[in-house]
Amino acid sequence: MTDLGLYLSRKSVNRSDVSRKTGISKTRLSELANNNKTKLRADELYLIALAIDVNPCEVFNEVCKDLKLKE
User: Fold this and answer.
1) pLDDT digit string (tens) for 1-41?
2) DSSP string, 2-69
């Protein structure tokens, strides 16, 4: 499961509602939640955050928490 998938699970998010509100297909949401090779686009992150009524920065910080600058 991806960081986005874990985040959505912790928030008990209904993916069907998110799909309906955002226009992102249920298949695409499933890929974003389960496949680590699937790339999340900024517009998708923003729409998902709006649909679940959270600050997009919260979702962004959760999804990108493991990214670090090179030393």
Assistant:
1) 999 999 999 999 999 999 999 999 999 999 999 999 999 99
2) -HHHHHHHHTT--HHHHHHHH---HHHHHHHHH-TTSPPPHHHHHHHHHHTTS-HHHHHHHHTTT---
Q: How far apart are CA 51 and CA 71, in angstroms?
A: 37
pTM of the predicted model as reported, rounded to 2 decimal places: 0.92
Cα gap 58→67, rounded to integer Å: 15
Cβ neighbors of 56 (< 8 A, separation 6 or more) are: 45, 46, 49, 50
Q: Of 48, 41, 36, 50, which is closest to residue 3 (Cα–Cα)?
A: 36
Which of these, 53, 10, 61, lies nearest to 33 by C-alpha position? 10
